[in-house]
Design a protein that fits this description.
CATH topology: Rossmann fold
Number of helices: 12
Number of domains: 1
CATH architecture: 3-Layer(aba) Sandwich
Number of strands: 7
Radius of gyration: 19 Å
Helix content: 40-55%
CATH superfamily: LmbE-like
Strand order of the largest sheet: 3-2-1-4-5-7-6
Order of helices and strands: HEHEHEHEHEEHHHHHHEH
Distance between the termini: 50 Å
CATH class: Alpha Beta
Shape: globular
Amino acid sequence: MTIRTLLIMFSLGVMPMGLCAADDTDDGKLRIICFGAHPDDAEYKSGGTGALWAKQGHHVKLVSVTNGDIGHWQMSGGELAKRRTAESAEVARRLGVTSQVLDIHDGELLPTLENRRTITRLIRDWNADIVIAHRPWDYHPDHRYVGVLVQDAAFMVTVPFFCPDVPPLKKNPVFLYSSDRFQKPYPFEADIAVAVDDVFETKVDALLALESQTFEGGALGSAEKAAAAPPASQPKLRKAWLRERWERRQSGEAKNHRSALIRWYGEQKAEQVKFAEAFEICEYGRQPSEAEIRELFPFFPAP
């Protein structure tokens, strides 16, 4: 890797593999890596929980496995990829976490050996305690294949002679799926639900940075949809517009997964939760006990 390449990557907020925050590895804090298919997915699905971890000093990384270069109705290619990488980096900054966008074309992700190695190296390089990804049953092929690739890495991260250029993990992480609405082959089941009321405003403020997606409509947008959103010249109206949408979304998560909230917060406190994010424990990777889950989610109240 040349010095010029390194400078370009650092300028985009991208941390080259093998050069991650190694100084933080043994500081006693948790290390969480969240994979999304595009430069908004991890932010949408686990941005609130990521902010909660970050508030306690834990290390969170949001990875977009593709560069999002066709995720807009009006622009595409390198220009869009750079724009969405910058948006993702700004969201991460506002949440207090780290971000990385891989240079794989949007809509073209495949579960190849090369990509399996990439995901394995990223998980090892971050020395992850928790790995979060899409379930491999989703409407978008990129989402599905992120799930497959992370599942495929769930065993390989501990195998010494797979990607021997990066040391294997000594302990298998806990792998989690982020929530979705798909029913087949089986519906999402919330093993863990996190109240994000305390960081809801932080998450909304962060998502304001995803202008290409939130206000311009992304791949399925149009001039009419973009015109219907509040303009950048009216920031208060723009935030209220976005906040109303995320109130519906996160309150729906809390309503749909109330039983999981009760399990982790107790009935009285759980009934007061307005906004939530939910996760399912993957059948691969380490299978945590209740006590381990409480250690991994240290913002849960004592039982």
